[in-house]
Design brief:
Blueprint lengths: L2 E3 L1 H8 L8 H11 L3 E2 L2 H8 L5 H11 L9 H16 L6 H12 L3 E3 L4 H6 L5 E2 L7
Parallel strand pairs: 1-2, 1-3, 3-4
Helix pairs in contact: 5-6
C-alpha cells in the first residue's frame, strides 16, 4: 500500500540533526526507496512555507519535485468537508488540510504516515488507515 506522508514526517526528514537514530526516518527512507511515498499540493505548500532563505526554498522545492502531487478533484474537497463535519459533531477538531489528507487517503486507498496524534482521533470516526511504524527499535 502506498503512503500519504504528512507534513510532520517531512519536517522530521528535512531536519539536519538526529537523522540517523530516528526510527521514523528509517521507515520514511525505506518508503522512498520502495517508491511508495505520495504527496498532495497542500502538504507541499506546508513544507515550503516559512522558509526565510530563498536559496533554501529553491533547493527544497527542487528536491520535492521528485514526488509528483496526487491530482485533487472537487470530490476530494467535498469528502474532506464531510469528514470535517462528521468529526466536529463528535467534538473532534482539526485543520482543513488534515481532513483533505484523510479524504485523499480514503479515496486512493493510502495509509497516512504522520506523527500528529490528531489523526488517531479522526480514525475513531473516519475510514482511514494510519501507517504503522516498522522500525521502532
Amino acid at each position: 500500500m502506498d503512503v500519504l506522508v504528512d507534513t510532520s514526517i517531512w519536517s522530521l526528514a528535512l531536519r539536519r540533526n538526529d537523522q540517523h537514530s530516528n526510527p521514523i526516518l528509517k521507515d520514511f527512507k525505506q518508503l522512498v526507496f520502495d517508491t511508495r511515498v505520495q504527496i498532495i499540493g497542500p502538504i507541499r505548500q506546508e513544507i515550503l512555507s516559512g522558509i526565510s532563505h530563498q536559496e533554501q526554498f529553491v533547493t527544497l522545492k527542487e528536491k520535492l519535485k521528485v514526488f509528483e502531487d496526487i491530482k485533487l478533484v472537487s470530490q476530494d474537497y467535498e469528502t474532506a468537508a464531510e469528514m470535517f463535519n462528521t468529526c466536529r459533531k463528535k467534538g473532534v477538531q482539526g485543520s482543513h488540510v488534515d481532513f483533505l489528507i484523510c479524504a485523499v487517503a480514503n479515496s486512493y486507498e493510502l495509509s497516512i504516515f504522520t506523527s500528529d496524534n490528531d489523526f488517531k482521533h479522526y480514525k475513531k470516526y473516519l475510514p482511514i488507515t494510519l501507517y504503522e511504524f516498522k522500525n521502532e527499535n
